[in-house]
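Honest question from a wet-lab person: if I give you the sequences of every part of a complex, can you actually get the arrangement of the whole thing, not just the pieces? Trying it with mine:
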Amino acid sequence: MKLFNYFRSSASFRVRIALQLKGLPYEYVPVHLVKGEQCAPAYTSLVGDALVPMLDVDGAHLTQSMAIIEYLDETHPQPALMPADALGRARVRALAQTVACEIHPINNLRVLKYLSRDLGVDEDAKNTWYRHWVRLGLEAFERQLQQPATGRFCHGDTPTLADCCLVPQIFNGQRFKVNFEGLDRTMAVFEACMALEAFQRAQPSQCPDAEA
Amino acid sequence: MKLFNYFRSSASFRVRIALQLKGLPYEYVPVHLVKGEQCAPAYTSLVGDALVPMLDVDGAHLTQSMAIIEYLDETHPQPALMPADALGRARVRALAQTVACEIHPINNLRVLKYLSRDLGVDEDAKNTWYRHWVRLGLEAFERQLQQPATGRFCHGDTPTLADCCLVPQIFNGQRFKVNFEGLDRTMAVFEACMALEAFQRAQPSQCPDAEA
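Yes, you can. This is the full assembly:
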């Protein structure tokens, strides 16, 4: 398998975590988002959406991080990243989507660029925007973690798709100095994740294309 | 089952389509987003993320439209809204997420409100923002539909989760006068969907809380 990704991309980070948790070897192919390499014809000829990550599995080009992780879980079931019961799966997917549909899209690189370049939003207002949506989303995440199904991790005592999505969002929030106060359950899960070697190995600073 | 939703919410519309395709009866509970009813304590005490839709299944409160639809598909397998093979499921989820993670979140009501109220963006620039992201996302969607797995619908010849996500986005784009030129495959799938009674019944104008 080849993972086309960028060290700082949250969506890429999610898939790296899943690959590490499953112990699956892969070739790391860097795509430099800030340099716009995702828009080069060599890449867009492979990937319809011109986004990272893309996982090449024997010539099939899988896109969208949550879809990739569910594919990995279906084809390499152990250790499981999804609960065995339908209600549990619904909860884990909802938690993952709270990050991937409610927080991250509003704050990714291309949206922030549009704010600056097309709407003339200054640096301060852009950072306020960023922090607003991350904080709002994580407060919703925290309320969902009040449910009894939460364990050491988002759902029970082993990592799931939800943890794969949460951790990169916290990393991203830390870069933008988001206020995490009062998000006790969320941050406890984050700490539990980061105590695991799989999460450590997947983090941006450990990537071949990492920059200071 | 009770569906807490809003006639004009794209994410609610996705779930209504799935319920209609499955032929599942449900109670319609309107939550008026423009009036802010999703933030009232009566609702937030049930729903951690203060968003619609929420599906109440025997007291379990399911959130996030794609998670709800996968739950419905797992618990009521016929007609199937997901392909039988892992690669097919990955493709359908990626198409759904192209709408639900790349287009819709940047354009929903709360984001548009923030642009106007907090950033002072005028009506014209807000509409340009809206059309930019929908068009960009649908162009990516169109490129993905060039794959041979596309049939009358997004994936093969029966509707899937991907169609449940696409159709509400087209409705939404029509309201904001998005230019759909050149998106031939996408619009052909949209027409095929709208020829089905299930999609017609789920549309905003057919909802009990519909407004002109």
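Two things worth pointing out. Strands of chain A lie at 2-5, 27-30, 54-57, 60-63. The CA atoms of residues 7 and 204 of chain A lie 5 Å apart.
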